[in-house]
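FORM 7B: Structural annotation worksheet

SECTION A. Query
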Amino acid sequence: MTPSTETYPIDIAGLHRELPLFEVAAGTRIAVLNVLGDTELVETASRALATKLEAVDYSVLVTAEAKSIPLVHALSVATGKPYIVLRKNYKPYMGDALKAETLSITTGQPQTLFLDAKDRALVDSANIVLLDDVISSGSTLQAMRAIMDRAGAHVAAETAILTEGERENWHHIISLGHLPVFTDAAAG
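SECTION B. Predicted structure
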């Protein structure tokens, strides 16, 4: 990714942020939301998402490592629901972990997600909510769905702070806003 000095202004649950634009391919830029270290945004977004999830019947929040970890923790505190984090690396203590592969839009590399064996009982036959900071291509969401399906969970809702790209692809996502993908006409 190549940083630029340009930013994209956005209001998220009443908070204003200037998101830096990064070139991810020739003539294509995305606005990057990095919630790590932004306690005010994480707390505000989690409260807003908790309100939007009030009508959903679920018992567990599920996210993928790593930028969504503070968000899922804050949302867990706001809702009183437990959470699990699907890990990007297998560790021996994770036991008989389930896994699914995806292609990361930010790195362009294959990525594997793992459900720790200790968390399997928590999601077995449970209604769960999948959570991400930004849903862009949907590849991480697809891998999370695959693991939850294999674990016997039912996805009750999918949520994110923001969606990105083609808005019609994300009509079912509970979110707080949407980001466009910026393309230069000359690059076409």
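SECTION C. Observations
The domain at 35-178 is CATH 3.40.50.2020 (Rossmann fold). The mean pLDDT is 91.

SECTION D. Sign-off
Analyst initials: ____
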